[in-house]
Amino acid sequence: RMRKLEQEGEERFDKRAREIVAYAVQKVGVSQAQEITTTTVPLPSEDLKGKIIGKEGRNIRALERAAGVEIIVDEVPEAVVISGFDPLRRQVARVALERLIKDGRIHPARVEEQVEKAQQEIDSQIKEAGEAVVYELGIVGLDPKLLQILGRLKFRTSYGQNVLLHSLEVAYLASGLAAELGANVTLAKKAGLFHDIGKALDHQVEGSHVEIGMRILEKFGVEKEVVDAMKSHHEDYPYESVEAILIQVADAISASRPGARKDTLENYLKRIGELENLAASFPGVEKVYAIQAGREVRVFVKPQELDDLAAQLLAREIANRIEQDLRCPGE
Questions:
Q1: Residues 65-86: b if buried by 16+ CB within 10 A, e if exposed
Q2: What is the CATH number of domain 138-256?
Q3: Distance in angstroms (rounded) separating the CA atoms of residues 285 and 305
Q4: 287 pairs with which residues across the strands?
Q5: Bridge-partner residues for 162, per DSSP?
Q6: For an engineered disulfide with 81, which of 72, 73, 255, 267 has Cβ 3.0 to 4.6 Å away?
Q7: Stated pTM of the model
Q8: Is the dihedral of CA 113, 114, 115, 120 positive or negative?
Q9: For residues 102 and 184, what is the distance between their CA atoms, to the nearest angstrom?
Q10: What is the pLDDT of residues 43-70, one digit of tens each?
Q11: What CATH code would you report for 38-123?
Q12: Where are the alpha helices (DSSP H) in the chain?
């Protein structure tokens, strides 16, 4: 009889847990679409492709160098394809290219000018994205610089899932679960929103996205309870509150929805990032862009530090390091 009562109790608890999760999920309506690694820019006419390429390819090379992307002109009729693993760079290139097409004056100096203006415009969009998310969630009193970092997640993907939308979804799910369980709703909401904040800078700063996120939140004076609640969502740290468990649950729910993520894309992006970081680690290197799915790495060096012979030796060293340190598909 005791065993039967115990079994019935477990079934009731399991049913109630499912009801709570289902109720929290039903309250969330964040749209989501997988990100890809190309952006298509339509052209008014096919003739414009010649102007975009320029004499001896000068214009297209200037755009690729300034924006850090690959421009493909012969793949789609009356359109140009921008290819690159970094959505932020692709967006900058798209805005710059659309302005150049509209203006009609396309030459290397003009290209660089428009890329710089596009970068400023995207920075403004990043700021607005961060402000819009916290306004939607009703969170106040945050440092504007923190919102700028948060907004960068609009142009960051994880397994093909947009990280800003994922963070918004986790905030809603975690706060919904907290409301059902009588936990701290505000704490769950903030920790859910910031649980992946480290991914905004993980291409630039050493450490896991959890560690980077903790440092960011501590730097901008976010409450210790929020930091403690977000740092356990990958079990890197022990749970210190009920809200910490809810963040992990909400994160798992958001990530596990059918079609939300795509492992192969994340592995590809990781490999491209490793290629760029490896090449950038050599002295005298100014910029590095991996293009053509990582089959080509463009390295720009500081001319005042490296002459032509040194650049050739550097290219050989980088190629050797890539062969030694990185695994390529098919190996």
A1: bbbbbbbbbeeeeeebbbbbbb
A2: 1.10.3210.10
A3: 9
A4: 300
A5: 157
A6: 72
A7: 0.66
A8: positive
A9: 52
A10: 888 888 999 999 889 999 999 999 988 8
A11: 3.30.1370.10
A12: 2-26, 48-53, 58-67, 87-103, 108-137, 144-151, 163-181, 185-194, 209-219, 224-230, 242-256, 263-280, 308-325
